[in-house]
Amino acid sequence: MAERQHGRAGGTVVTAGLMACVCLGASGCGGRGAAVEDPVRTLHDAADALVDAKSSKARTSMEMATGGTRVTIRGEGVYDYTRQLGRLKVLLPRDPTGRSEHRPITELLAPGALFMKNRGAGVPADKWVRVETAGLSDGNLVTGGATDPFAAAEVLRGTRSAEFVGTTDLAGTQVRHYRGTADLTVAARSASKGGRASLSAAAKGFATAVVPFDVFLDSEGRIRKIRHRFSFVNSTREGTVAVASTTLLYDFGALADVRLPAERDIYAGRIAEE
Known about the structure:
Order of helices and strands: EEEEHHEEEEEEHEEHHEEE
Radius of gyration: 20 Å
Helix content: 10-25%
CATH architecture: Clam
CATH topology: outer membrane lipoprotein receptor (LolB), chain A
Number of helices: 5
Strand content: 35-45%
Shape: globular
């Protein structure tokens, strides 16, 4: 196959070495019926494929390594991609002794805002805490303990380089595995109106705007699994903290009736550290 280059807006250039041959109805590459795929362009479109799917269930996992300690936070819930609204129940890890168990945090994800219940000492049990995500240094890609599933997809709009790794089975579904890096600054410029400010904040707040990722797409181009590796500067000690955020999406079309709290149900007082 002769080498070709595909120019894209913003100066992105993909060489043939970063292109995969996807065979349609054939067991091998080449010949009639084979198509040449541009992985970068495919990943730029992954967020739009989720909007077409309308909704899904989601599981999240966030691993943070600092000071020789590894902490994992897990979440599970649903997401409505047409309205960019999600609901997750997030489980915090036990304390270092393993004795103290935290209450699950309910999180509502919305464009520009994160709502949390059971978050922070002194907050009444029936009240929500609202956080403006554009004001967070990571745009809420890390702060909430779970990356907003649609934000995770929109990071791929900033894909600068990517390669097709191969096909594999993921929970009974054949998926295509891609690996690459995305630029949060580029992603913010191409993001939806609701996600632009948060991704811009993350581009400025992380130690680097370049985010390595692995992503698995099904036959309809929908994300089934995505893993980002973020890094940010630790404010209490020198060096950076590495965070691996994994999002699993499944049961597309599932009911995702997410309703944001009324203004009277949002706590406006001071939040103490637990």
